[in-house]
Amino acid sequence: MRFNRLYQAMAALAVVFAFVGCDDEFSEIGGEIITNPSNVEMREVEVNAYSQKVNSIQTNNLSDYILGVHNHPVYGQSTASLITQLSLSSENPNFGENAQLDSVVMVIPYFSTQSEESTEDNIIYELDSIYGDESFKLSVYETSYFLNDLDPDVGFEQRQKYYSDQQDAIEQNIIGDPLYVDEDFEPSALPFDSYELNVDGENDTIANNPALRIKLPVEFFQEKIIAQQGTDNLLNNSNFRDYFRSLFIKAESNGSGGSELLLNFSGQNSAPRIRLYYKRDSSDEDEEEQTRGTFTLNVGGNRFNTFTGEYPQEISAAISSQSSETGAENLYLNAQEGSMAVIELFPDEEELENLKNEELLVNEASLTFYVNDDILAGGDQPRRLYLYDLNNNTFLSDYALDASFNVANPDISVTNFSELVAEDESGKYYNIRITNHVSSIINNDAENVKLGLVIVPNINSVVVRGSQGQIGGSLMSATRGMSALIDLIPSVNSLAPTGTVLHGNMSNDEDKRLKLKIFYTDYN
To answer: Record's PROSITE patterns (predicted)?
Structure first.
């Protein structure tokens, strides 16, 4: 797994919009918290926790998209594929007389950084946000699957949602043979040059960062695009998207370990594209040679990820056996179309009432989730977990009040709330502080909501932030085929294939059993 500056471009999504800050909303929550008392005591409180399978998740509202094959030692094999619209860079294009294609190249940038070993004459890149280091089968198809902007089922008043479990429907609409197949595709960290026509009609050499770069069939695009000059098919993008409905970029296992990588759709310098290079008759009657031309199809508009793969039977059975009534020996967390956990604080109402009557001043409250290495046995360990209000599908006050927010480096951002995976003498663990949340329940009669626990590759991208870092709202994706409680899930959960297994509240290991630790001062 390689990611030097994990998903920095994803953080851009969180600073696009300006919103009213949340300081006033949470100004009173921490009023009774004592930061450095001298007589602190600690109490462990029982919690309830259980796993839930994520059957289907909305994936057409993401900033970037993931592609490839991932093999996990616990959760098995999964694949991530992509379906996308294309659009004309200019409507009703004129390619000139007798235009003949030379080549067609699709380019979708990766996330990459320059290596410290780079020199002025030799720039070396390292790929970020890539999981695994082996190959997979990559294919590209045209499909007749139409991607609506708006949902006809609600009177075209809401944006259409597309879900991760729709791959079967896409494959039923594939047209003809694949446009491209690579049985052993591996992402390359090598930069490449492209040749773009300047205003004088001459080629300029452009240096490009590493990207998914594949050559598509000239004959297909000659007929599909060039030969359609002057027809209604290219008159405008509305017509074009009905004519050339979508591309399906499909990942499949080839028997190796595979890899998954994040594709950069949000970069400002190099947009995903299909570039058509052609020759045409010169408009100058005195010139006999043909002149060169280019045309761009933008890889954009509506697009979404599909995920395929089945859990091993024993893992599916373990998850389905868990509920609020049973609790869990182990919590199964896996990103994408995977699984999550539900955490219930203070399941014993009498115990909660006793705590309220004691009027304790909370100094710190935290949940420590120990990794069950006996089950996990390797794999890409997630770097960060995220806990949120499951009843209201929003962030907790402790996330909002964390002053350690760092827009440039997610690894050191919001670490007072959610620490990166760490290790002590007992093993690997995640620590999440919910001091303000617990204090509000005990001292301010705040609602004791259920909490959702998921894997996130970038803690900054669970919310939308304004230009000054103020929070405008949670970034959530719809789910379907799940309980009414889990109708939304943090969108960023879709952008990493990592998984883990945690000790639950019923763990046989007492030292690693999930409990709520409350550090408090009692002045009564």
So the answer is: PROKAR_LIPOPROTEIN
